[in-house]
Specification:
145 residues, 6 helices, 3% strand
Length: 145
């Protein structure tokens, strides 16, 4: 799968990376890889909201150390707090799923997380006033700017 061109705009680039992760999850050959890629897509989508809302507020980004996307997302975008809680609850499984630990997630959990991450990404595009990504003729996902 060809990588999408980066625009230099952090919000659009994060959403593009999220869509790439969703595409990788859709073709993953293991349950763990599908789950991990879907969760990473959601994480990048949440980071896009933080990047957008930080810019909207005109504030400077703090370099105070590691941040928790899910707790920060609930603060800056309360309308997405249920999504933040959902993905935060699944965050602990991602490292084990990435490592290939058997039985960490079921095929159903991985499929459900993929669908939920896709729905979250689409919702975030709407919330941020960006076009919802479309599937191109070759099956790749594209974010029009």
């Amino acid at each position: 799968m060809a990588r999408m061109v980066r625009t230099g705009h952090p919000v659009v680039d994060l959403l593009t990376q999220a869509r790439e992760c969703l595409a990788e999850a859709a073709i993953a050959d293991t349950t763990g890889a599908r789950f991990a890629a879907a969760h990473l897509a959601a994480l990048r989508t949440g980071a896009a909201v933080l990047a957008a809302r930080g810019r909207e507020a005109g504030g400077k980004r703090s370099r105070r150390g590691p941040r928790n996307v899910w707790s920060d997302l609930a603060k800056v975008a309360p309308e997405l707090s249920e999504w933040a809680e959902f993905f935060a609850a699944n965050a602990g499984k991602r490292p084990a799923a990435q490592a290939g630990v058997a039985g960490v997630v079921s095929p159903r959990e991985a499929d459900d997380l993929l669908r939920d991450a896709d729905a979250f990404c689409r919702l975030v595009c709407v919330v941020l006033g960006l076009p919802v990504p479309a599937v191109t003729g070759d099956g790749a996902l594209a974010l029009a700017v």
